[in-house]
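Entry 14. Structure prediction run on the chain below.
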Amino acid sequence: MLAAEVASSQQAQWDLVRDYLASYAENRPVRKVTVVGNAPLGPNPERVAQIDSSDLVFRMNSMALDDPGTPPCVGTKCHVLVVSRYAPVTPWMFQDYRQRAYLIPQAGYGLRYILHPQPTFWPSDLGTMPVPNAPVITRLLDQLDPDHVPNQLIPTSGTISCFLAHEMFPEAEMFATGFSFLDGVQRDSWRYQSGGGSPVIPAHQLGLEARLLRSWIDDGTMRMLP
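Output returned:
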């Protein structure tokens, strides 16, 4: 009985997050989803046309957008932002913030039960939703490594974004771009479209994340944009 109640609660949380994200979509039902990573991308009008024609665009930490009059690199749309409360603030992070969903992964993931308040320097009326651990993050961790040790494997905000898009909107056409770890090169630091970079923490096991994303590319459920 308890197991059934837990499963029902987790499904209800999953549905709540999905409905929350869908409410920010350009069109409903959601038929096209694109996840834009934060790796540096050069100008490509065709890529940007695909991004900006999506019903739902996901971005993540250190997000960037194309400003008016600048070359078309990463597009102008952002409906969902998966962002750590510790992420550096870029010029685009709070641009039109009332028009997008902000999802906050919980530090520690599988073992963290305390919700921390959002930073005081964020807009006071910014609505955020925590990414629930049991129905979302634990499910992702199980796909990355069924034998993972809690708190020793922490997915990147980019892979969390891809997982949400892929699993919550399976009926939609899905695209992704800007994921440097798919090139197969082991890296110990990130470079960002928005400028600067940061170290890759040991708990981000990029090989596992690349394998999961490639499995979706191979089965045709996710297509990479150049």
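The chain has a mean pLDDT of 91.
Filed with the rest of this week's runs.
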